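>> Question from a student workshop board

For tomorrow's exercise we were told to take the sequence and the ligand below, predict the bound structure, and bring the output to class. My setup keeps failing. Could a helper post the expected result so I can at least see what it should look like? The ligand is 5-O-phosphono-beta-D-ribofuranosylamine.
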Amino acid sequence: MAAIRLGVLGSGTGSNFQAIAAAIAAGTLDAEIALVLSDVATAGILTHARSLGLPAEHVAPGAFRSKFAPAVEEAVARTLMEAGVDYVVLAGFMRMVKAPLLTAFPRRILNIHPSLLPAFPGLEAWRQALEAGAAETGCTVHFVDAGMDTGAVIDQRRVPVRPDDTPETLHARIQAAEHELYPAVLRELARPAGN
Ligand code: GRF
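>> Workshop helper replied:
Here is what the output should look like for this input. Compare the format with yours to find the bug.
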């Protein structure tokens, strides 16, 4: 049995999910992906998960744009608990997480953000870094709380900003760093206490 069971939530391509799944397949991360949920029916993350034979479901989000409808959030929390999930991994999930999901998994919901938080929270953080003239940026894995990108930082990777960077080239290098950072953080969480 794997050391930790993960429930993954994503809205997009799912490249971070793929990096985590690849680390598990390579035997460098002692984890199991119990299920993948997405608020976007056509999201690449669901396609990738299904191609790996993992349970992957679309969750109709309800009437709100920035969060799940309360009844939906409650059903998602229940589904994740019933799946025996230890950690909820947000991987490009574009909605705010609220109670009861937050309260069901205290300090057990993780997110990855494309900046060195607390710098540049919110959308398109790589573009924010470029427009601010930052010399470096990076990515952060943090615990999720009720705020936007405000939870306790677990670990970060630095990425230098180059003079000729465009938003696209900078974002690509940050994503490459993300694909190392997320599995590394999960590896630490999967490590037996005292090792
Ligand atoms: C990542 O850049 C992550 O930092 C942000 O959303 C993006 C998700 O990309 N939260 P992917 O779906 O994992 O490819």
